[in-house]
Amino acid sequence: MMNTLKISFAVLKPPTRYLPSSNSVISQKLHSPSSSPSVKPPTISPLGRGKSGGSRVYSTFAARTNFKVNCYSNMAEPNSDLKQGDVTVKDDRIARISSSIRVIPDFPKPGIMFQDITTMLLDPVAFKDTIDLFVERYKEKNISVVAGVEARGFIFGPPIALAIGAKFVPMRKPNKLPGAVISEEYSLEYGTDIMEMHVGAVQAGERTLVIDDLIATGGTLVAAINLLERVGANVVECACVIELPDLKGRDKLGGKPLFVLVN
Amino acid sequence: MSAGENGDSDGRIKGIKSALRVVPNFPKPGIMFQDITTLLLDPKAFKDTIDLFVEHYKHENISVIAGIEARGFIFGPPIALAIGAKFVPLRKPKKLPGEVISEKYILEYGSDCLEMHVGAVKSGDRALVVDDLIATGGTICAAINLLERVEAEVVGCACVIEVPELKGRERLRSHGKELYVLVESQFEPTTQ
Description:
The complex is a heterodimer of chains A (263) and B (192). With 263 residues, chain A is of the alpha/beta class. Chain A contains five helices and twelve strands. In chain A, the strands form four sheets. A six-stranded mixed β-sheet of chain A has the order 3-12-11-10-6-7, with helices on both faces. The longest helix of chain B has 15 residues, at 43-57. At the A-B interface, strand 1, helix 3, helix 4 and strand 7 of A face helix 3, helix 4 and strand 4 of B.
């Protein structure tokens, strides 16, 4: 029996407009390594509780990084606010979310442009908007399980689960979950890793989401899908904040739909 | 202070306590592991857990929730979202990209390290440390140290479960920090 859960959020000012037109579709080049500035920490003004007026100024790394702010979904069934196929969602919230994410070059190794969501977590409006965008999509879909992939999936999954009245199921690295687990091996660039889920956490037939911060090659998400399907769950969709489209993870999900907020 | 301490018959605490499970001999013989994952499978009990923390802290002007990897990432963000605070993940080494500060702390055997992003927390930020459980308090003290090194004010520490025999509360008290927990650890293994 699922209750509809309401979480009351602090009332905040409307987000600062970063872009000239709220109705424009933003489509920009991806940030290229050759023009990358040296790494320096983000300077993000605090919310300044108790202050009235004044705009928040962000000079995060991501401000110098161009992101597409399109929302993509290949979910087959019609959705009231998204068309089928590649669609563009005109939503101010996505622009703010996108610009709150920072890129760290050469992490964890040279050549990788790491998409860092921790700066988004420092912007309570952007973080709330991120959760809201997922909740709006899934709240009427009878989802009973939100599976979050360790560790950054633990940040986004639980707020979504709480808001839609679903269970939260952590998908973890080996030997972290106590008690009986099922394991799924999956490929890495070099070698393999293992993902585990608790026996008994998910029942056959439960409608589930898989949540992570980012999809790259899709290997991790596929492992999560496999674990859920092995216990007879129905994986309705995978949802991530960020997609790296060049790595074509979307095509590797065995036909499962993928919903992301930014590329 | 513990939420159930004063003979409070708050039904929510009862529901939370019964949603937890104990797994014996994990991760090694003799340890009765307090498992919160069953709490997460009970949407009402999970919501009640977050609500109790939010009710306790919402008037404290908290601007930062610092959650300790990995189970602090489950409880911290919903609290942060509800009170409009930043969420700052405190992580094992080499997980956070970019510039970090590190704090070493002692384990039963050997030591470990906790890291926080440079610039995430500002001087004067009022911070709450969140984790699923406090045992000896070693990890939580490392978290407090990281926050105090950047001159944040650590208002308190919040955990779902406390293991009183390991005296984490006393350790925090000796650093002048308040601990708020919902339940104490249980001894009986529960069948789930």
